[in-house]
Amino acid sequence: MLTSRNAAHRRKAVFLVGYMGAGKTSVGQALAHRLGWRFVDLDRQIEARERRTVADIFRDSGEAAFRQLETRALQALLKALSDGDPTVVALGGGAFAQPANVAMLQSAGVRVIFLDAPAEELWQRCTNTKAANERPLLREKLEFTRLCEERRPHYLKAGFHLQTAGKTPGEVVREIEFILGEQSS
């Protein structure tokens, strides 16, 4: 059962999780615009704080160091949300696969939505963009698919699960709005 404190937090924040290419950023930006909420991409926030790209952090410091930065950034963001504006947050593809991050999100009582699509479609989305070389875990298709399947059980722990396959960001936004409307009543 939700406490009133958790219910208030649920109205203030939506976290989008899923594998790279699932649409977390594009859907998140569109959703925030539609709702009149603030949008935060946690990876971009880390890059701004560290003054280097996620790819540079992975290359220079390793994935473990990046995951520590990610957890600290999420902790700071959740703390700021308690006093801030309603916010849509896009988490990096590996953030929700980290138990400490999942525990923080559950404790905060925020809505977490898993944006899902088949690995083949995610691969196509990722490799057909100008930013493909900026994704540190986008090396080759077999590894991409393996990691996608490895993370999937973690994503399925999200409170909501939406298929994004073959859908535009606008269509996914409408589905999320329906979820938010149902949860508010």
Ordered list of secondary-structure elements with their pairings:
Layout: H1 4-12, E1 13-17, H2 24-35, E2 38-41, H3 42-50, H4 54-61, H5 63-81, E3 87-90, H6 99-108, E4 111-116, H7 119-127, H8 141-155, E5 160-163, H9 169-184
Parallel strand pairs: 1-3, 1-4, 2-3, 4-5
Helix pairs in contact: 2-9, 3-5, 4-5, 5-6
What does this structure look like?
The protein is of the alpha/beta class. It has one domain (4-184): 3-Layer(aba) Sandwich (Rossmann fold). Helix content is 58%, strand content 12%. It has nine helices and five strands, in the order αβαβαααβαβααβα. It has helices spanning 4-12, 24-35, 42-50, 54-61, 63-81, 99-108, 119-127, 141-155, 169-184; strands at residues 13-17, 38-41, 87-90, 111-116, 160-163. It has a five-stranded parallel sheet with strand order 2-3-1-4-5. α3 (42-50) crosses α5 and α5 (63-81) packs parallel to α6. The relative contact order is 0.20.
